[in-house]
Amino acid sequence: MNKLKAAYDAIQERRIESLEQLLREDLALLNSQTPFGPLLHVAAGAGNLEALKLLLSCGADIDARGGTFGGDALNYAASKAHVEVCKFLLSQGAKFDVSEPERNALFSAIYVGSTELAELFIEYGIDYSVAYTGQSMTNMDARAFAIERGQKEVLAVLLTQ
């Protein structure tokens, strides 16, 4: 079996010992790209906090980009509403990428309707006023996106700012 696929499976199946063994055998796996980004993204998307801790302790780049939209692990965790993973990543120094709406963790939180994540990201200083113009939006900031998505509870959080 391909080692990268084996590492991916170990993360998804929460087999930390297997992941640790694979990384001992081939540390280059740490920054290898899967279709979802590096293994850190896979762990973030799976909500696998143990795997995240292991990968970071081995030297994974907390702000590495990859996957479909070239985002980071924080945005990927937010898109799956993994609050504890987002808290952990922020506590370890993850930075917000607001360069594109697809990479904006607050937009991901709005998309999944997570008031808890919206509050967390605001607490950690995300720029919620940044506005985007592109194919599907014109001068759209977080509040406008919450309105468009019908996320009234998240909008209420944003309006208190």
From TrEMBL:
KW Repeat (keyword) present: yes
SMART domains: ANK (SM00248)
Pfam family of the protein (one): Ank_2
GO term, biological process aspect, one: positive regulation of transcription by RNA polymerase II
Superkingdom of the organism of origin: Bacteria
UniProt ANK repeat ranges: 40-67, 69-101
GO molecular function, one term: transcription cis-regulatory region binding
InterPro entries recorded: Ankyrin-SOCS_Box, Ankyrin_rpt, Ankyrin_rpt-contain_sf
Name of the protein in question: Ankyrin repeat domain-containing protein
Source organism (scientific name): Janthinobacterium tructae
Organism phylogeny: Bacteria, Pseudomonadati, Pseudomonadota, Betaproteobacteria, Burkholderiales
